[in-house]
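Quick one, tokens below:
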């Protein structure tokens, strides 16, 4: 790698916050404007920097949009530490954040054209999968049957409540929602989102699944999908574990012989099964 390349991938670019949406308790979506092109794909992430505090890895939460000489991107941030707490509490419309990236490998949508796709998301895990849904909606003719399975602890904890109804309207898309606990007025499934896997009706050999959520939820989802006949290489997981540098130098995100930030965060299950405990989950 040339010195100029190293500087480029480590350089933090200025981003202006143009919109903030409250999604759920301690979760907000920030729409950012970056001057010039920012070629980030579904499943990849940026390091988002709050001046004087530090940076945190945050996945892309919508498809990027070119606007004049700028790029509009969205990141959904959950308050989990000092950096994300500060962003949640202090970043407002007009605030300036730093953006370093994009990094990592995303969802292989091009590879899976003409296949069925089953999306399984838990809680904040819908954020990295939202660009997948948007991409499929824009390119609906490239894919066959689509299932969106999304659950959270309660309906209040769900993301993008203002657009969930729109997912039901995408042609050929079946949406199943779940709440872990029973809440008055909730008309969808009560229980874990992984329970809904039994309701999908596809030929596993013609289907891939994209999964993101809390790690225990992903392990259960994998087990359910395997029981359904899915191939290990056709189950993809987003493993966002302790990423700090974004380029595989610090070693904090090492997962077996992989560095999640560089070799992932999206992995086929067949590559990481030795490092994920599935049986008995």
């Amino acid at each position: 790698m040339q010195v100029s390349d190293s500087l480029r991938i480590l350089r933090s670019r200025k981003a202006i916050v143009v919109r903030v949406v409250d999604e759920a308790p301690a979760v907000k979506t920030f729409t950012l404007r970056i001057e010039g092109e920012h070629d980030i794909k579904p499943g990849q992430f940026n390091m988002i920097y709050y001046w004087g505090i530090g940076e945190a890895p945050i996945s892309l939460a919508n498809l990027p949009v070119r606007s004049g000489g700028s790029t509009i991107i969205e990141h959904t941030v959950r308050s989990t530490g000092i950096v994300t707490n500060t962003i949640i509490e202090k970043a407002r419309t007009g605030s300036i954040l730093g953006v370093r990236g994009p990094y990592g490998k995303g969802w292989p949508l091009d590879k899976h054209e003409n296949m069925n796709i089953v999306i399984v998301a838990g809680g904040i895990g819908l954020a990295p999968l939202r660009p997948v849904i948007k991409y499929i909606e824009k390119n609906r003719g490239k894919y066959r049957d689509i299932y969106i399975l999304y659950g959270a602890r309660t309906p209040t904890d769900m993301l993008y409540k203002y657009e969930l109804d729109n997912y039901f309207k995408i042609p050929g898309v079946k949406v199943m929602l779940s709440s872990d606990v029973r809440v008055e007025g909730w008309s969808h499934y009560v229980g874990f989102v992984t329970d809904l896997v039994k309701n999908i009706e596809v030929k596993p050999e013609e289907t891939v699944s994209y999964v993101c959520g809390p790690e225990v939820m992903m392990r259960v989802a994998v087990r359910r999908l395997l029981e359904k006949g899915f191939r290990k290489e056709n189950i993809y997981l987003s493993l966002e574990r302790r990423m700090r540098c974004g380029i595989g130098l610090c070693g904090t995100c090492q997962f077996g012989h992989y560095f999640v930030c560089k070799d992932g965060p999206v992995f086929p299950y067949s590559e990481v099964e030795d490092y994920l405990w599935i049986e008995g989950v």
